[in-house]
Specification:
Two copies of one chain form a homodimer. With 376 residues, chain A is of the alpha/beta class. Chain A folds into two domains: 2-109, NAD(P)-binding Rossmann-like Domain (Rossmann fold, 3-Layer(aba) Sandwich); 120-372, 2-Layer Sandwich (Dihydrodipicolinate Reductase, domain 2), CATH 3.30.360.10. Helix content of chain A is 35%, strand content 26%. Chain A contains twelve helices and 16 strands. Chain A has a six-stranded parallel beta sheet with strand order 3-2-1-4-5-6, sandwiched between helices. A six-stranded mixed beta sheet of chain A has the order 11-10-7-8-9-12. In chain A, strands 14-15-13-16 form a four-stranded antiparallel beta sheet, with helices on one face. In chain A, α1 packs across α11, α3 (68-77) packs parallel to α4 and α4 packs parallel to α9 (182-196). The termini of chain A are far apart. Chain A binds chain B through residues 14, 17-18, 21-22, 117-119, 123, 126, 129-131, 252-254, 256-259, 269, 271-280, 283, 285-286, 288-290, 292-293, 296, 300-302, and chain B through 14, 17-18, 21-22, 117-119, 123, 126, 129-131, 252-254, 256-259, 269, 271-280, 283, 285-286, 288-290, 292-293, 296, 300-302.
Chain lengths: 376, 376
C-alpha cells in the first residue's frame, strides 16, 4: 500500500523511519516546503498527491489549523483515508472531517492526536463496543508533566525548569500551548467526543500551570498531594462535563507517580471497570508508531466509526469538587483557610472555579489554582 | 452469531450478563454439571454443543486442565473458534491448540487468560505488528497484590490478610495457585510466548509470597522499596529469560502504587517505547468483558496469529540482578549484609537465586527472597 506524508518534521520522519522497516507499506510521496525537497519522493505540490490514484492513505503531521484543514478535506474528498497527529485541527473540525469521510467512503484515523504512542483512541473505541464509558481523564501533555516532576524532584522553580525543558527539546520556544493547557484542551475535546459520542465543544474551562511555584508544590506535598495538569470528562444522566486544570492528587495514586515526560490516560467502563494506559505521549518514534498503527488498522480493514449524535448538555456541575487558591486576593466569605496564603472553596464546578480564578489573577497575576477531587 | 459457554461459574455468568446487553451475539448453549442445568439453554452433554452447526464460537471458562483441554480440542477439531479464560490449560497446551486451530480453520482467543479486563494479549499482538518487544513484566495476580497492599496499609501480617482475602472472595480456599506464584507463572508463559514468538516452557523459576512477613515489608520500606509479586521476561540476542518472584521496587514506581486487587502489565517496544496497562485483573464482569471483546474481534474478522517458531534459548542470566534473602541460614561467603537478619547476593540469575532460596528454605522454612533489579 502506498501512502503519502504531509510534513517532514519530527513526527513525519518518525513515520518514514518506521515504515521503512515494514513490508507491504511504502511512503511514495512526502509534502514539504519547496526549499526542503531534497529527495525524489518529496514535493511541495499537494495537488500532485491528492490526484495520485496510487496513494491510498495520506498522513498529515504538519500541525496547525491551515493548511492542514484544507489538505485533510481535499484528501477525504478525493476518497483517500487520512491519518493525522494534529490535535488542533481535529479538535476544531472533528465533525466536519467525519462527515466528509463518510460521504466519500474514506476513513479518519486520529490515534496520534492524543497520548502519542499510547493506544488511547483505539482503546476507547474498543471499550465502547461493550461498555458505556462514564469517565475519562489523563495526564496528556508530556512537557508540563516533565516540568512539574522536575520541580518536585530537583526543588527548582518554574522558569528555570521550563528553560531546561526547552533546552532538551521537550518544550517549544513559545510554550503557551503546553503550559496554558491548550494542547490538553484539544486532546480532551477529541477523547471526550469519541468516548461519549457527543460533539464536545470548546466551552471546556481551561487553566494551565503557568503560575505554579515550588512553594505551591511544597504546600500540597505537606498534605500528601501532588499537582498534575489533568484533562477530565464525565457523563451522567444525559449531561456531560469536561475540564482542563491543575489537580492535586494523592501521592500514592498512579497519576502522581508518572515521571518525566510520560503520559497516563484513564477511562471507566460499566463492565470492564477502570483501565489506565501509560506511555510516551510525544516524540518522533512513539507518535510515528501511533500513525503507522492507524495505517495497519486501515490495511486490516478497520473502519473507525465516530458518532457525535448524542445530545448531551454541558453541565460543569458534574465535575464539582473543592478548589484551592494560592493568591493574595482576600478570601471570599464562603471560602475556608487551606494553608498559609491559600484558601479553599468547597464543592464548586470547574467553570465557576475558573471564573473565580480569573478574579484572583486580576488582583494577583501570580495566583495559582488546583482542583481537589474526591477519590473514586 | 450464536455462541456457547462452557462452565457457568463467576466468569461464565459475567459473559452471559454482558452478551445479554449486546446485539448480534447470543448465548444459545451453556455447558454445566447435570444437577446445575436449570434453564433451557443448559446442557451437560458437550457432544450436543460440538455437533451443533449453529454454534460458531465456544467460550471455555471452566478452568483446570481436564476436561477443558479435551473440550477445547474437540471444538477446534470441529472448526469452531475458541475463546478461553483458562490460563492453566493454555500455558500447558498453547502450541497444540494453535496447531489444531490452524489445521481446522478455527481461531484461538486468549485475552482473558492474562490480566482480566486489561487488553494485554491484544496489545502485545498489536505492538508486534511494528516493534520487536524486548521486555514484558507485570503484576498479574490480584489476590497477592491485595494481600501485599493490605499488609502494608494496615500493618497486618500474612495469615490474617490471606484469611480476609478469602472472606472477601479474592482468594480461594486453597490459595496455593495464587500465593505460590503458579497463576502468575501460567500468565507469564502465555504472555512471553506471544510477545517473543517462542515456545516459552515451564523451566521458568517461580517463587511466591507465602513466607512474606510484615517485618519484611518494613525492612524494604526503610530502603524506599515496595515488594510486589512480578512475572518478568526479557529477550536479547537470540536468547530469553523469564521469572516469577517477589521483586522490591522503588516506592515511586507505578507498580509500587498499584493498590488492592488491581493488575498492571508492561512491555517495551523498539519504537513505541514503554507501555503500561492497568485494570481489574480478575472478576466476573472484567474477565467476562475480555472474553466478549474476543468474540467481537472474531466477529469483526480479527484472526490472531501466534508463532512459536523462534528458537530462543532459555538463559536466565538475562534477568541477573541482586537478590535479598531474609533467613536464619548463615550468610554465604559471597553475600553481603543487607539489613538485620537479611543478606544480599549480587548479580545472580533467577534460577541460581531460586536454588539458593531452596537451600535457605530447607534450613529455615520461614525464609523470604526478593529480587532487586536495577531501574531501567
Amino acid at each position: 500500500m502506498k501512502i503519502a506524508i504531509l510534513g517532514y518534521g519530527t513526527v513525519g520522519r518518525g513515520v518514514d523511519t518506521i515504515v521503512s522497516g515494514l513490508e507491504g507499506v511504502e511512503v511514495t510521496r512526502i509534502l514539504d516546503l519547496p526549499d526542503r525537497c531534497t529527495e525524489p519522493r518529496m514535493t511541495s505540490d499537494y495537488a500532485s498527491i491528492v490526484s495520485d490514484p496510487s496513494i491510498e492513505v495520506v498522513l498529515e503531521c504538519m500541525g496547525g489549523l491551515e493548511p492542514a484543514h484544507t489538505f485533510i478535506m481535499q484528501a477525504l474528498q478525493a476518497g483517500k483515508s487520512v491519518v493525522t497527529s494534529n490535535k488542533a485541527v481535529v479538535a476544531a473540525h472533528f465533525d466536519e472531517f467525519v462527515r466528509t469521510a463518510e460521504r466519500n467512503d474514506a476513513c479518519l484515523f486520529i490515534e496520534a492526536t492524543c497520548g502519542g504512542g499510547i493506544p488511547w483512541i483505539a482503546s476507547i473505541l474498543k471499550v465502547r463496543r461493550i461498555d458505556k464509558i462514564s469517565n475519562i481523564s489523563g495526564i496528556m501533555n508530556g512537557t508540563t508533566n516533565f516540568i512539574v516532576d522536575a520541580m518536585i524532584k530537583e526543588g527548582a522553580d518554574f522558569a528555570e525548569t521550563l528553560a531546561r525543558a526547552q533546552h532538551l527539546g521537550y518544550a517549544e520556544a513559545d510554550p503557551s500551548a503546553d503550559i496554558d493547557g491548550i494542547d490538553v484542551k484539544n486532546k480532551t475535546i477529541i477523547a471526550t467526543s469519541v468516548a461519549f459520542s457527543c460533539a464536545c465543544t470548546s466551552e471546556v474551562p481551561v487553566t494551565g500551570i503557568r503560575t505554579l511555584t515550588k512553594a505551591d508544590l511544597d504546600l500540597f506535598a505537606a498534605k500528601g498531594l501532588v499537582v498534575k495538569l489533568l484533562g477530565r470528562a464525565v457523563q451522567r444522566n444525559g449531561r456531560y462535563a469536561a475540564s482542563v486544570e491543575p489537580v492535586a492528587l494523592p501521592a500514592r495514586s498512579l497519576e502522581a507517580n508518572v515521571a518525566a515526560n510520560f503520559n497516563i490516560v484513564s477511562l471507566k467502563g460499566a463492565t470492564v471497570g477502570p483501565l489506565k494506559f501509560y506511555g510516551q505521549g510525544a516524540g518522533s518514534l512513539p507518535t510515528g508508531n501511533a500513525m503507522v498503527q492507524d495505517v495497519l488498522d486501515y490495511a486490516a480493514g478497520t473502519r473507525p466509526r465516530y458518532d457525535f449524535s448524542r445530545p448531551l448538555d454541558f453541565d460543569p456541575a458534574l465535575l464539582a469538587c473543592d478548589y484551592v487558591y494560592r493568591t493574595t486576593m482576600p478570601k471570599p466569605d464562603d471560602a475556608e483557610p487551606f494553608a498559609q496564603g491559600a484558601w479553599l472553596v468547597r464543592n464548586t464546578d470547574p467553570a465557576s472555579a475558573r471564573a473565580l480564578f480569573e478574579q484572583a489573577l486580576a488582583q494577583d497575576p501570580t495566583s495559582f489554582m488546583a482542583a481537589l477531587p474526591q477519590e473514586d
